[in-house]
Design brief:
Strand content: under 5%
Number of strands: 2
Helix content: 55-70%
Distance between the termini: 31 Å
Order of helices and strands: HHHHHHHHHHEEHHH
Largest sheet: 2 strands, antiparallel
Radius of gyration: 22 Å
């Protein structure tokens, strides 16, 4: 979608705090209010650029790290069909990360900088991927709940004010929708199986339900970036709104599977027209974000190992590029 040659940083044509910059900011906000996309060469406030780099890099990291829980089950999938499906999904997730890294590069950062931040722990990724995939049922639950939560958020991102990010999300949403359907189909199969399979399904949902709700981030009152991101239309819906949409959609799907969601406070509120649900364990959420989840260190160490193991590939590619360039110069 975007190559490394598109790396650029919008030019600053006014001093910080000057009347000229104030006018540029008014025009910038007017474009956003009119739902006109901001493109890489357009003027933008530095804070807008930094917010996008942070969000897009974390999103890309989540796609890359998110390959790990499912990757551990490729060799253990119960049939060739399931292996092929899982391999295709893992490949898709890697591609999603590349789309988003490329989009972030249009903001003046580099892929290597973003990946360095991931390897050193400076950058974050979705908390859900710091939980282990303990059973085959998790491959379905991840597709249903985790990818379902991602779609809920990403459909809104497809209307993001930054053009490269918005356009990348169009294709990603289509593929994530397939992932969700694949996961749900796997769970339907388990729900019609033996009692052991049904129990495995229920146990998987019990473990991953609450971490899936945490994927939308902290409550709106505790989210430091939400208000400004909403004003800039980087985000189109708040964390709590997206979480409520996800809960409302999931209840009926759980009933169809013949399972219960692990929340005794979950009930329909006729007055609100939504499901009420219990309090999320925010202490657990912040502990995982700080790096103390079940798999935080394992996930980052795997990223570091993959980078180190792939050093010879990068060296060979650079040598080939130099040799090819030398031949062209000689010609």
């Amino acid at each position: 979608m975007y190559g490394d040659t598109s790396i650029q940083k919008p030019m600053k044509i006014a001093k910080s705090g000057s009347p000229e910059e104030a006018e540029l900011e008014r025009n910038f906000q007017a474009k956003i209010d009119a739902d006109i996309k901001i493109e890489a060469n357009d003027w933008m406030p530095e804070a807008y650029r930094k917010t996008l780099v942070r969000q897009m890099s974390q999103h890309a990291h989540s796609e890359i790290v998110g390959m790990q829980p499912e990757g551990t089950w490729v060799t253990r999938a119960p049939s060739l069909r399931r292996k092929v499906i899982l391999l295709a999904k893992v490949q898709d997730e890697g591609g999603h990360g590349m789309y988003i890294y490329s989009g972030a590069e249009t903001l003046g950062t580099s892929r290597e900088t973003m990946l360095d931040d991931l390897r050193t722990g400076k950058a974050k990724y979705s908390s859900i991927f710091n939980y282990p995939a303990l059973s085959w049922a998790d491959m379905g639950t991840i597709g249903w709940l985790v990818d379902g939560a991602a779609i809920t958020n990403q459909v809104a991102l497809a209307r993001c004010s930054y053009g490269p990010y918005s356009r990348a999300m169009v294709r990603i949403c289509k593929e994530e929708s397939f992932h969700q359907r694949q996961g749900y189909e796997l769970l339907i199969t388990l729900s019609k199986g033996t009692q052991e399979q049904k129990d495995m399904l229920q146990e998987s949902v019990n473990r991953l339900w609450w971490p899936s709700l945490m994927m939308f981030g902290p409550c709106d009152d505790d989210s430091p970036h939400s208000a400004q991101s909403m004003k800039w239309k980087i985000k189109r819906k708040s964390n709590d709104t997206l979480r409520q949409e996800f809960v409302d959609a999931s209840v009926g799907q759980a009933k169809f599977l013949g399972i219960t969601l692990p929340d005794p406070d979950l009930k329909w509120n006729e007055k609100r027209g939504h499901y009420d649900f219990g309090e999320i364990d925010w202490a657990e959420f912040y502990d995982v974000i700080k790096g103390n989840g079940p798999c935080n260190r394992e996930r980052v160490n795997n990223v570091i190992k993959a980078h180190e193991d792939g050093a010879w590939v990068r060296t060979a590619a650079e040598a080939y590029a130099e040799k090819h360039a030398a031949k062209e110069d000689a010609a």
